[in-house]
Amino acid sequence: MFCPYCGINLQIVLLYCASCGRSIQFLRSLQSEGPEATMVDELIHKYFAEGHTSEIILDLLATKHNISMSLSTLKRRLRDADLTKRTNYTPIATVREAISEELQGSGRLLGYRAMWQILKQKYSLTVRRCDVMNLMRELDPSGIENRSQRRFVRRTYHSTGPNEVWHVDGYDKLKPFGIAISGCIDGFSRKIMWLACGKSNNDPSVIAQNYIKCVAEFGVFPMRLRTDCGTENGLMAALHCSLRSEQSDELAGTRSHMYGTSTSNQRIESWWSYFRKQRIQFWIDLFGDLRERHLFNGSYEHTRLLRHCFLDVLQKELDEYKHHWNTHIIRPVRQSNCPSGRPEAMYFLPHRFNGMNCGFPASPQTVSQLERHVPAPAAPDGDSDQHDFEELQRQSGLAPPLQWQPAVENYITLKNMTDI
């Protein structure tokens, strides 16, 4: 078969003519099924395009296809098909066109070495690696600069102002000890909207009440709410979508709530790492020490007693840390378009940080309507036992603890008195 543009005899029909560089892919549909020789030529071309040496090609043909030939025969077939590595280079214009096509998709992530390999295997081009490097510098300078930094490029978080997105999630590191934590953070200011601990963060009524209390405290509800796909978020999502159904913007109604994986809920998930390093690791170690001293075995009775002794102390600790975080200074980050400063100031004074309040006002009547639609959280199991703990604590003269040391003493004393 011959090239219709330059007339050269084509032993194998490639994507581009090795002589003139014009696209001849359409000739493949005109090429009839050849005899065994054509199959051998196709195998030779396949392995040559993959970058194998002549010795490896011979071994592959013999091992995988039971085809035996001499090295001189293979070289002659390669020469007849114009399959060379250092001569008959493809015209630069054809190479540039192929690189441009690859840069339109995921090929923009490739370096020049990987691009050179793609050009050989996918496009059957004969090109020097230095030419590919120069063309990549010309066609993709920003990609070259990013790759030269050897740094993983993350997506940039962007928010136009406070109350645009609230990120809600639960923290389960203390669940083995009977205590669950729920938190919410504003995406723009990184202000902690609520941070509460309790018996459970899987009860939809508990999460919905946290949301209602926050809306009542700040008198505003956000433009969007982002959570993971847990069932505990369903009631809160329904309440929020109901509130947003009264607006007419493009994100009104059901679009105002966004489900996603936990790893995609970046703001709150990344904040949990700060929370653990700066605060909660102490409590994990404290409760773990009680377990190692055989003072806590994870049983139902031990869990209820530990929660009774430590829940108020831990909530006080969470309130202090929430205040500390909301008033500390956040440094600038290159991967974020959000401002730097103190979360409290960024939340209430967005105009000073090139932002605007994106929330919607919530009247006391609106909050009251929400509360009527939220059932009371399920009563804790063994609620009568909880009252027994309180009565026993009063009879023994144990004061309600304000710090962790008295809480530990109360826990050990009550454990011994109840013989659990």
Structure, described:
The chain is of the alpha/beta class. The protein has 2 domains: 91-153; 165-418, Nucleotidyltransferase, domain 5 (2-Layer Sandwich), CATH 3.30.420.10. Helices cover 48% and strands 8% of the residues. The protein has helices at residues 36-49, 54-65, 71-80, 92-103, 112-121, 129-139, 141-148, 204-218, 234-244, 266-292, 300-327, 343-348, 364-372, 383-395, 404-418, and strands spanning 165-171, 180-186, 192-198, 220-221, 224-227, 257-259, 360-361. Strands 3-2-1-5-6 form a 5-stranded mixed beta sheet, sandwiched between helices. α8 runs parallel beside α9 (234-244) and α11 runs antiparallel to α15. The radius of gyration is 34 Å and the shape is elongated. The termini are far apart. The model has no long low-confidence stretch (mean pLDDT 86).
Could you give a quick summary of the protein structure above?
The protein has 2 domains: 91-153; 165-418, Nucleotidyltransferase, domain 5 (2-Layer Sandwich), CATH 3.30.420. It has 15 helices and 7 strands. It has helices at residues 36-49, 54-65, 71-80, 92-103, 112-121, 129-139, 141-148, 204-218, 234-244, 266-292, 300-327, 343-348, 364-372, 383-395, 404-418, and strands at 165-171, 180-186, 192-198, 220-221, 224-227, 257-259, 360-361.
